[in-house]
Amino acid sequence: MRKLGIDYGDSRVGIAITDSLCITAQGLETIDYKGNDKVLLRRLDEIFENYEVDTIVVGMPYNMDGSKTFRADITEKFIHKLKCKYNTKKIEIMDERLTTVEAHKTMNFLNVNKNKKKSIVDTISAVYILEKYILMQKNEK
Fold this sequence. Notes:
141 residues; 26% strand; single chain; alpha/beta; Nucleotidyltransferase, domain 5
């Protein structure tokens, strides 16, 4: 069973997924949902039809001091929707501090065209969120 990583933003959501052995995380896509969770949930339904996913890992935005951001409250409401709709899947929360910064560093290192950055930064952030989760799971064993 795979794990799905989500970087939940205001208008775009990055999606990453593990391989079937849950060893690596790959970017799947960026969903441009413009803040409409119904559009996002419909796309997640389609993803779950194509991939056997047992765990959804959502990045939680915290300030550097560990306090919740304004965005954290919105993210918690989205997580509640996920728990209601996908009640057979495990929902995990991961600290997403600095994942967007790391995504931008990666894109700069790879000389990604600035016009493409906006469309892939959230997906790369989702990969980092999912990689943190995979590492945490390995360390707990």
